[in-house]
Design brief:
heterodimer; B: about 325 residues; alpha/beta; 11 helices; about 30% helix
């Protein structure tokens, strides 16, 4: 059963016009950061959202929580249409939907103690106050691996990994069901990263949580997700069960992304694809299939026609014109 | 292969208000001509400070207090600042992690490339006009070498007009302008996306092969080392804890820290199995006792580990700083 259902969600940002541009009838520039995205997250699962910087994965995470107001489309959480909620109703549902941010340095208020930071959701949602709030806060901090005597310290007194634990405690304290994890381990060293991943998985088991896990790191996504969605320039190009997408990627972007990851251990069995060039500007995205400017398999139709999403296996979908040919870049490469 | 860089027992200290921090403590390393050495460690392990010390770039309150640095038979620590300036850029070049802050935003790419040539290249013609043409040609050649399209017109552009991957290429072009014998690449791809990272690493490997240059690749990513380096050196809390041929060290790590680091990396093949993180945190480098620095986090630690541990032989061409090596065979 899906806990979260996102349908045709788009988020555009409009640029401002200068006076001169307005007088000469200039058009506003529009960035479509997220474009017509549909996905679902089942209760109790981890959906890994993967893509490179600027592909819109964080914007999507925030638009789902309405931290950034979506331009179009619908987000349903546990049967409630989040996009249609009034501000008080939205606040009430946010108790159940939380977020952990990427940067443990920027996402904690340096002037507040840990007790204040972690306890704030309790006050905001009227869950507890005073001694009771402090007791709950202490308990949550203990659960994420911090010492109760650290509760009155300030963020700068903690290391990066400990700060991320504080961020996790803040997300957990209101007892949510769904958490958007926005690159929670990207800023951390490998050994600390493993500690935080292990903690997030334990908490998920224990509290029956559901995660939308956003990352650019394929190893992390592959390790902890049940299903994966691959994003490129604001669109989801491939989605499916993790084993199916990683072992048998069907979209040429997913194939080249996987082949770009340096591997430890055994020599690479398959060849390697090198994508040419950079990510195009989302201000002026390519026509047709947005990947055609870098795609080694592009044919003329890719420049003009947007490919439809098709089923390529059990719950495995991809959007590419050449899917039916069953091509695999990795096998073609040397 | 002959030895190009030989560092012995290097120590770099920073005096802070609270006390003395030994960021690099007794580091010895060798790089042969044309070789690629991977330097791996987490933040604060001393990998960048080690190479800044070699380059003579440590500024007060930091100070190199001990050790010898020989490059191509010359003693770098005994050199005057002027002599050192002649080595930097010409014989040893370094690229910084963050290309956006390392490049000067107020100068065009062409001006920044030309600066290195004017400072170091004695082969340039002396006549003014001929000199200008020669510099321009070399700049175009270098940008072409690192794969920047239409280098001629891009020379007149500023750093902000390039993408992150392109800026990293430009910094590599500047580093390579005088065809150095050693390139120190400090986290060249950390700020880049994985598809761009692959392009930049391939570029470095390719140029290294063509120019016969040695490379020290500083990174925190063991995957990058596995694919690009001949030998690897693992650092922890200011010391080298393990070194050897990349395949051996990664395939069969001997030091408990290297083992822990490898076990911490999530891999899709390990789905459902628990990760085994290294417990605890890196120790504070201030006032460390002369004993194994990893013992508080080490699964093999015993009271007898609380002594100063030297680098011990751990197989052919391999060394590790651990007294329990027989338990990790």
């Amino acid at each position: 059963m899906s806990l979260l259902q996102v349908t045709n969600l788009s988020k555009q940002y409009e640029g401002r016009l200068s006076l001169a541009q307005r007088l000469t009838g200039g058009r506003k520039t529009v960035v479509r950061a997220v474009s017509d995205v549909s996905l679902h997250v089942n209760k109790g699962e981890v959906l890994g959202l993967i893509g490179e910087s600027g592909c819109g994965k964080s914007t999507l995470g925030r638009a789902i929580l309405r931290l950034h107001e979506p331009t179009e489309g619908k987000v349903e959480f546990d049967g409630t249409d989040v996009t249609a909620l009034s501000p008080p109703a939205l606040k009430a549902i946010r108790r159940r939907m939380q977020i952990i941010f990427q940067d443990p340095y920027a996402s904690l208020n340096p002037r507040r103690t840990v007790a204040e930071i972690v306890g704030l959701p309790l006050a905001l949602h009227g869950i507890a106050s005073g001694e009771e709030a402090r007791a709950i806060t202490t308990q949550v901090l203990k659960r994420v691996g911090l010492q109760p005597d650290q509760i009155d310290r300030y963020p700068h007194q903690f290391s990066g990994g400990q700060r991320q634990r504080i961020g996790i405690a803040r997300a957990l304290v209101s007892n949510p069901e769904f958490i958007v994890c926005d690159e929670p381990v990207s800023a951390l060293d490998v050994s600390i990263q493993a500690q935080i991943i292990a903690l997030l998985l334990e908490l998920k088991q224990e509290l029956g949580l559901t995660y939308l896990f956003i990352s650019h790191d394929i190893s992390v996504i592959g390790y902890l997700s049940d299903r994966v969605a691959v994003m490129y320039l604001g669109e989801i190009v491939e989605t499916g069960p993790v084993a199916s997408v990683l072992d048998n990627p069907r979209h040429p972007y997913t194939q080249s992304l996987l082949s770009a990851v340096p591997e430890i251990g055994a020599k690479r069995a398959k060849g390697r694809v090198r994508l040419q060039g950079d990510l195009p500007s989302p201000l002026n995205p390519p026509s047709g299939c947005k990947f055609h400017t870098r795609c080694p398999l592009a044919i003329p139709i890719c420049q003009t026609l947007v490919p439809l999403t098709q089923a390529v296996g059990a719950e495995h979908h991809a959007a590419c014109h050449r899917l039916h040919e069953g091509l695999n870049l990795l096998e073609g490469a040397q | 292969m002959t030895v190009l860089l030989e560092v012995t027992n290097l120590r770099t200290e920073f005096s802070a208000r609270a006390g003395l921090v030994r960021a690099v403590d007794g580091v010895s390393l060798q790089i042969s001509r044309g070789e690629c050495l991977g330097v791996v460690g987490e933040s604060g392990s001393g990998k960048s400070v080690t190479f800044s010390s070699i380059m003579g770039l440590v500024r007060p309150p930091g100070r190199v207090t001990q050790g010898t640095i020989f490059f191509d038979g010359r003693d770098l620590r005994g050199m005057s600042p002027e002599e050192m300036r002649g080595v930097r850029g010409r014989d040893i070049a370094m690229t910084m992690q963050d290309a956006l802050t390392a490049l000067n935003p107020a100068l065009t790419i062409g001006e920044q490339l030309a600066e290195v040539l004017v400072a170091h290249d004695e082969t340039l013609p002396t006549g003014r006009a001929a000199r200008r043409v020669a510099i321009k040609d070399r700049c175009v050649e270098m940008l072409g070498l690192v794969g920047i399209p239409s280098p001629d017109s891009r020379l007149r552009q500023y750093p902000h007009e390039f993408s992150g991957g392109m800026r990293q290429r430009i910094m590599i072009a500047i580093a390579l302008a005088c065809r150095p014998k050693l390139l120190i690449a400090d986290e060249p791809t950390t700020a880049l996306d994985v598809t761009i990272q692959a392009q930049v690493l391939e570029l470095i490997s390719d140029i290294r092969a063509r120019m016969g240059m040695a490379v020290a690749l500083i990174t925190h990513d063991l995957g990058v080392v596995a694919e690009h380096c001949d030998r690897v050196m693992v650092m922890y809390a200011g010391q080298v804890v393990e070194e050897g041929p990349t395949e051996d060290v990664i395939g069969h790590p001997r030091h408990p820290y290297t083992r822990g680091l490898l076990a911490s990396i999530p891999r899709p093949a390990m789905r459902g199995q628990p990760l085994t993180p290294i417990k605890g945190q890196v120790p504070n480098l201030m006032g460390l006792a002369p004993q194994c620095r990893f013992h508080s986090r080490c699964p093999l630690a015993e009271p007898s580990c609380l002594v100063e541990v030297p680098m011990l032989s751990a197989g052919p061409g391999r060394r590790a700083r651990c007294l329990r090596l027989e338990e990790t065979v």
